[in-house]
Amino acid sequence: MFDVAIIGAGINGAASAHFLTRSGLRVALFDREAIAAGGSGAAGAFISPKISKGGSLKDLIEEAYLYSLQFYDRSFPEHISNASQLHIAKQSDENTKVISFREYTKIALASRPQSSGRLLNESAKAFESVYIKESGVVDAQKMCEALGADATFFHEEIKSITELKSGWQIGTITAKKVILATGAYLPVLDEPYIQLRAVWGHRIDIRTSTKIPHIIHHKVSLAPTTEEGFSAIGATHDVHYHPQKSQIVYDVEAGREVLIEKAISSVKLEDIEILKDYTGLRSGSNDYLPLLGRVANAKKSLEAHPELLKGARIDKTSLAYHPGLYIINGTGGYGFVLGPYLAEMLSRHLIDGEPMDDRLDPTRFLLRWAKRRKDG
Ligand SMILES: Cc1cc2nc3c(=O)[nH]c(=O)nc-3n(C[C@H](O)[C@H](O)[C@H](O)COP(=O)(O)OP(=O)(O)OC[C@H]3O[C@@H](n4cnc5c(N)ncnc54)[C@H](O)[C@@H]3O)c2cc1C
Fold first, then answer.
1. What's the whole-number average pLDDT of the chain?
2. What is the pTM of this model?
3. Is there an atom of ligand 1 within 6 Å of 30 CB?
């Protein structure tokens, strides 16, 4: 029997595997396709803070940003390229967010280098911007592979999991505990209160003669050019397309055109040659905060606490939980920033029983879902 089975080998599953195997646990890591086959493989994997005025999500991402940059630098320096980054407001109503971020962030800022002025189009220069000196771009594929390297990998789609007297049956193996890390793909477990929003994204690796000296986030995100002239352009931009639900096939050519058009509207890019496309889904929760923690059984919890239908506040520990079942998901456009931070928190909980961040407890959605059922 494995100690832990993780379903989904994106950044969240792979980072969880890393911390658990590092503590000596026997971990099975499942993916229906391959490591980083979902949203993680499509990501530009820029380590960026959230540029906003404030709030729980901005604070969480900022904490995770500082943690994850150090973690990658220390543990996998070969899979992160250090680079500074320039954030430019996407539209005028984002200007105030940028100004506020500059004023209140804990992250060290610097003044924008002259070179970026020559690179940007006038339309991009019209917006407020912030320049962060120490940041990075992760090699998404290699990082996920390295994080998951000490787990036993199973190339297998898990359609359902079965609770045993002690532990779980997952495909052909058994494990004491299970972590669901399936991103925005179809869920393995039907718990009606766990609803994730899927956003489809597209990244292209390109070659260009233009020297991009740092990461640029504006209408799309651009990676700094390597010495050989390689860069990447990425964005998540389609809330309707879902590879497992949509009837139509995603139009890669049209997606590329949108990316290039947006990129050249902000940066003077020349001699663009498209090298490779990557596509995938990212998942976000209804309140934009990730889901990290134990998974409660909605049906049994309502049987035990029918007062939930009236919106009663109860002690969450008295809910009926699926024993040994956890979720790490909903990291939105910040999976590579949040992944290691959340995974480390989850592993400390599993190994030493340390509490996790209560703001991320998935049962917050169970309480809301139960109340809506009554209202509906
Ligand atoms: C175009 C794009 C650009 C992005 N840019 C950035 C960025 O610059 N910085 C950043 O931090 N984040 C970025 N993100 C967001 C980031 O990629 C996501 O937050 C992150 O990938 C989520 O990771 P995950 O592990 O939760 O999900 P995923 O990476 O989607 O992994 C889920 C895995 O589960 C597997 N799976 C699903 N169901 C099953 C099943 N039943 N059985 C077995 N396996 C299953 C899938 O095959 C998949 O590999 C971007 C996303 C996209 C799409």
1. 94
2. 0.96
3. yes
Hey, what are 265's tokens? 């509207």
If one residue of 336, 337, 346, 360 were mutated to test the ligand 1 pocket, choosing by the most ligand atoms within 8 A of its CB, it would be 336
**SS3 assignment, position 38:** coil
Residue 339 binned pLDDT confidence (cut-offs 50, 70, 90)? very high
**Is 335's C-beta closer than 6 angstroms to any atom of ligand 1?**
yes
116 token code pair: 């970026």
What is 55-138+198-280's CATH superfamily?
D-Amino Acid Oxidase, subunit A, domain 2 (3.30.9.10)
- Quote the ligand 1 centre to 184 CA distance (angstroms): 7
Q: What is the DSSP letter of 219?
A: S
Do residues 187 and 194 lie in contact, with contact meaning Cβ atoms separated by under 8 Å?
A: yes
Q: Which two tokens stand for residue 226?
A: 């390597």
Q: Is the CB of 31 under 6 A from ligand 1?
A: yes
Residue pair 255/188 in contact by the 8 Å Cβ criterion: no
Ligand 1 contact, 290 CB (< 6 A): no
**DSSP assignments along 286-342, one per residue:** TTSS-EEEEEE-HHHHHHH-GGGGGT----GGGSPEEEEEEEEE-BGGGHHHHHHHH
- 334 closest CA partner among 266, 288, 276: 288
Query: Ligand 1: which residue has its CA nearest to atom 14?
Result: 333
How many Å lie between the centroid of ligand 1 and the Cα of residue 137?
16
Q: State the Cα–Cα distance between residues 250 and 341, nearest whole angstrom.
A: 33
CB count, 10 Å around CB of 108?
A: 8
The CA distance from 175 to 4, in Å, is 5
Query: CATH assignment of 2-38+143-196+286-375, given 3.50.50.60, 3.40.50.2300, 3.40.710.10, 3.40.630.20?
Result: 3.50.50.60
Listed by start position, the domains of the chain span 2-38+143-196+286-375, 55-138+198-280
- List, for residues 249-300, the tens digit of each pLDDT value: 999 999 999 999 999 999 999 999 999 999 999 999 999 999 999 999 999 9
| Residues facing residue 122 across a β-bridge | none
> Which residue's C-alpha comes closest to atom 27 of ligand 1?
183
CA-CA distance, 20 to 345, in Å (whole number)? Answer: 11
> CA 359, 361, 363, 365 torsion: positive or negative?
positive
Q: How buried is residue 121: exposed, middle or buried, by Cβ count under 10 Å (0-12/13-18/19+)?
A: middle
